[in-house]
Design brief:
Elements (H helix, E strand, L loop, with lengths): L1 H21 L19 E5 L4 H12 L3 E6 L2 H10 L3 E5 L6 H9 L4 E6 L16 H20 L3 E10 L12 H21 L5 E7 L5 H14 L3 H10 L9 H10 L11 E5 L9
The structure holds NADP nicotinamide-adenine-dinucleotide phosphate.
């Protein structure tokens, strides 16, 4: 009796594995236990210790998806993993090619989503940034996405999502945010390119382009931007809400909501596009 029930479980597990290998897996309804008490659905989140990567990871884990979390600071990763049993820490620098092997080694099965949310280490205007800062920014956001794809590509299949965070300066340039403007515009172009590469494999590609979000990151940026513009911090922070017709910051929860939305099968229709989540900051219609 015991033996037959073990056999049945083994059969169920094998059929679940084959479903994961050969069919799309759409959302929590298809949540499968892999026999060791862990969800069989997986995702990789780069920037998991950050405001938005963290929100994305929490949304995925709330749907029972295991998250392989990437960031450089191993201690912060371990602290986060101590809070979330579905989080596996994967310390790696996405700006370095060594991240490819490190992330690939941490991924142990098919991936539901890869999420690229690493922040830029450089900012400034054409007058204040070092010329090489532009290359640094490209290396993190475009090169980083390429490394993430090299590491995880073999585990992407029908129904998987490739998601990258860009930003509204891509289409609403501001002179004091040269790097986010240039690099996020390039990223939108790159998302289109990737959609042609991955679409035939039924893997969809998406950019989420947030407006200003009240976060430690934007407060750090505001301090230097205020000094550059010769205004005080409050004035600089106020400029981030004044520029939006809703006159407020975009919420972190809104970005998490978009990540959840992209898990829906209907989100196939958003393949290759940019989700403009700027809260009324865009002025152009293209
Ligand atoms: N916050 C906003 O208002 C806003 C608005 C529009 C767009 N965005 C975009 O959203 C992204 C994330 O923003 P955020 O506010 O979440 O930033 P954040 O809180 O500063 O988080 C950045 C995350 O990226 C990780 N990271 C940075 N460089 C990395 C590298 N080389 N390799 C691996 N991980 C790296 C950081 O961890 P480690 O430092 O430990 O590596 C951290 O986990 C950025 O690209 C930003 O441009 C943000």
């Amino acid at each position: 009796m015991r033996l037959s029930s073990v056999k049945l479980c083994a059969l169920c597990f094998e059929s679940a594995c084959s479903m994961l290998r050969s069919e799309r897996v759409d959302g929590a309804a298809h949540h499968i236990d892999d026999g060791v008490g862990m969800s069989a659905e997986r995702a990789v989140v780069v920037g998991v210790t950050g405001t938005l990567g963290g929100a994305a990871a929490r949304k995925l884990m709330s749907r029972g998806i295991r998250v392989i979390g990437v960031a450089r600071d191993a201690e912060r990763l371990d602290a986060l993993a101590a809070e979330h049993k579905l989080l596996t820490p994967c310390p790696a620098d996405i700006a370095d090619d060594s991240a490819i092997d490190t992330i690939a080694a941490a991924v142990d099965g098919p991936l539901r989503m890869i999420f690229m949310g690493a922040g830029l280490p450089v900012r400034g205007s054409a007058e204040t940034a070092a010329p090489g800062d532009f290359a640094t920014a490209i290396n993190v956001k475009i090169g980083g996405l390429v490394r993430l794809l090299r590491a995880t590509g073999p585990q992407l299949g029908a129904g998987s999502r490739i998601v990258v965070l860009s930003g509204y300066h891509a289409t609403e340039p501001r002179p004091h945010e040269a790097m986010p403007g240039v690099i996020n515009a390039a990223l939108h172009n790159f998302v289109r390119q990737l959609s042609d590469l991955w679409g035939p494999r039924e893997v969809t590609v998406h950019a989420i382009s947030p407006g200003a979000i009240d976060s430690p990151r934007i407060r750090r940026i505001a301090e230097t931007a205020a000094a550059e513009r010769g205004v005080d911090l409050a004035t600089q922070l106020e400029s981030y809400t004044a520029e939006a017709s809703l006159k407020k910051f975009v919420s972190v929860d809104a970005i998490a909501w978009a990540v959840g939305l992209l898990l829906d099968p209907e989100a196939d229709a958003l393949h290759g596009s940019v989700l403009a989540m700027d809260g009324g900051r865009l002025r152009s219609i293209l």
